[in-house]
């Protein structure tokens, strides 16, 4: 079995573009992968084409390590976000083909069944006015769908710092959500790397009484000193890692005890082949993985397979019940969260168990959608201008 052709399909939504990669083999099989690239879809497509011609066409899909080596080492330059994302989509599709060829679901090839269900948390649900009562009402709809955990960023378009009034407003939003969902539902607070460390520490102290399940990206990625300052200032769990793309970037987080949950993204970290290496390393530090997941149904299904087989998996992010739920119709056998358990079930079909419907995808072509977390009103996920004027620091 050799890979004979790479087919890419981009699906556009108001705030994200989903790139699907299909690998067609010389014996008629088709494997599928997916990645959501923030604002650089055309760059991603160029990388898939260039790297695919060099390392994928003509390869045996079982040779995932060899393909990864080509992208990460033979290219000589450091493999960053774009290359690792291109590799991830290809790698996921390769594992889909391996599963089809062996007649096994991917999770069985990754180590077998470790768990019987994959716990999930909801994101993308808070698309209303940034007011405590309105967001509390939306939070109730999340719990009504069976989720036992939800995440929100209550900080608006803040950058670097927060005024006293904005901090109070943000805390009141989280308080309203806590009042709406009760103490048995985990509230995960997303900070999107907005703050300098002193501000992040101040926010942590203000939220401590609400006992969030974690504080996510309290400082920008790469600011190890700032993260250490936040770590010292709070006993709340810290989660980070969605914008980390290589193993060496994880080293200070693990070795200095700066992270309680790693959120490295399967589709930006080289796929199954990359993330399973990180999972083994993180296990040595007793650190679990809660993969960042803003994908549609294919990327989500890949994450479910990874979670089933990975002992130190914690919980999986899920957007598709609340943001662009129609993307579930792009495939057959889309993964869904059980309303009774708040978890995904274990897939049993060979490979990933999903197939892209190209006709359905063609109804939602690429639209150049961009997303700016520092634009006022970004929470509505209606698409935002890349060059919006940033909010002033300490106005």
| Mean pLDDT across residues | 95
Q: How many strands?
A: 14
**Strand ordering within the main sheet:** 5-6-7-8-9
CATH topology name of the domain at 108-350: TIM Barrel
| Highest-level CATH class of the domain at 108-350 | Alpha Beta
Give the amount of beta strand, in percent. 15-25%
Largest sheet: number of strands, sense, barrel closure: 5 strands, parallel
Question: Between the first and last Cα atoms, what is the distance in angstroms?
Answer: 62 Å
The geometry reads as: globular
For this structure, what is the CATH homologous superfamily of the domain at 108-350?
A: Enolase-like C-terminal domain
SS content category: alpha/beta
List the total number of helices.
Answer: 12
Under the CATH scheme, the architecture of the domain at 108-350 is: Alpha-Beta Barrel
Q: Which blocks of ≥5 consecutive residues have pLDDT under 50?
A: 385-395
Share in helix: 25-40%
Radius of gyration: 20 Å
- Series of secondary-structure elements, N-terminal to C-terminal: EEEHHHHEHEHEHEHEHEHHEEEEEH
Pfam families: MR_MLE_C, MR_MLE_N
InterPro entries: DgoD-like, Enolase-like_C_sf, Enolase-like_N, Enolase_C-like, Mandelate_racemase_C, Mandelate_racemase_N_dom
Domain Mandelate racemase/muconate lactonizing enzyme C-terminal: 132-237
Keywords: Lyase
């Amino acid at each position: 079995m050799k890979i004979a052709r790479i087919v890419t399909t981009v699906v556009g939504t108001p705030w994200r573009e989903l790139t699907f990669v299909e690998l067609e083999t010389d014996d008629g099989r088709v494997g599928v992968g997916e990645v959501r690239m923030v604002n650089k879809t055309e760059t991603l497509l160029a990388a898939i084409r260039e790297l695919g011609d060099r390392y994928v066409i003509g390869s045996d899909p079982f040779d995932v390590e060899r393909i990864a080596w080509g992208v990460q080492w033979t290219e000589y330059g450091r493999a960053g976000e774009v290359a690792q994302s291109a590799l991830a989509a290809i790698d996921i599709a390769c594992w889909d083909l391996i599963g089809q060829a062996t007649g096994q679901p991917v999770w069985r090839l990754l180590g077998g069944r470790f768990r019987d269900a994959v716990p999930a948390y909801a994101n993308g649900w808070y698309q209303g006015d940034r007011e405590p009562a309105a967001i509390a009402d939306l939070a109730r709809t999340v719990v009504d769908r069976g989720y036992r955990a939800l995440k929100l960023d209550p900080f608006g378009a803040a950058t670097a710092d927060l005024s006293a009034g904005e901090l109070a407003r943000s805390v009141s939003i989280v308080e309203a959500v806590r009042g709406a969902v009760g103490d048995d539902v985990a509230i995960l607070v997303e900070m999107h790397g907005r703050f300098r460390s002193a501000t992040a520490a101040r926010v942590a102290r203000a939220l401590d009484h609400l006992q969030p399940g974690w504080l996510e990206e309290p400082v920008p990625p790469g600011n190890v000193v700032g993260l250490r300052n936040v770590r010292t200032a709070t006993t709340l769990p810290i989660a980070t890692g969605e914008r980390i793309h290589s193993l060496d970037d994880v080293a200070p987080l693990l070795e200095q005890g700066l992270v309680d949950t790693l959120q490295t993204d399967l589709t930006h970290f080289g796929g199954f082949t990359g993330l399973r290496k990180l999972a083994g390393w993180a296990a040595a530090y007793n650190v679990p993985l809660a993969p960042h997941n803003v994908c549609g149904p294919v990327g989500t299904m890949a994450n479910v397979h990874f979670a089933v087989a990975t002992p130190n998996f914690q919980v999986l992010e899920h957007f598709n019940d609340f943001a662009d739920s129609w993307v579930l119709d792009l495939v057959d056998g889309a993964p869904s969260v059980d309303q009774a358990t708040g978890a995904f079930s274990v897939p049993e079909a060979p490979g990933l168990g999903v197939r892209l419907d190209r006709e359905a995808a063609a109804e939602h072509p690429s639209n150049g959608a961009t997303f700016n977390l520092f634009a006022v009103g970004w929470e509505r996920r209606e698409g935002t201008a890349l060059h919006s004027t940033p909010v002033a620091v300490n106005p």
